[in-house]
Design a protein that fits this description.
The protein is built from six helices and two strands. By secondary structure, it is mainly α. The protein is elongated.
Length: about 160
Amino acid sequence: MQDQERLRNKSGADRLGFALLLKFVEVEARFPEDAGEIPVPAVSYVAQQVRVPAEEWAAYDWSGRAIKRHRMAIRGAFGFRECIEEDQAQLGEWLAVELCGVELNRDRLAEAVVARCRKDRLEPPAPGQMTRSAPSRSGSARPRWVGCRRRPGPGWTT
């Protein structure tokens, strides 16, 4: 019922887009990087639930004001806040000090970051938003976080 209330003042592509983002965050604990990340069967199912043609999904604006408002409302619904530069620095320091010396598996490092973000009630970075820089001149392999809104490329790179 609470989800229906959140959809009350939305129609068409905005209604479907909001509903899909809401469900994606509920399942994945992060926002999708693009429309293609949401499976077609999920789009069809949610479209039926919110009584909007599935074709409307193609009209959802991924760069406009509506998606910014939708993301803000969804963060609020789940009690998360947006990752800011200070959070990125703290996550990078935590990763460098606590994990990089003992864990080499990139997938497990990424899972640890997501778990830490959930614990801290932060919107976790999407997989394409994390990167690990090459060792610095001092020889340490300190992670570097790219802005939460930018996508440097898929996964972790060295």
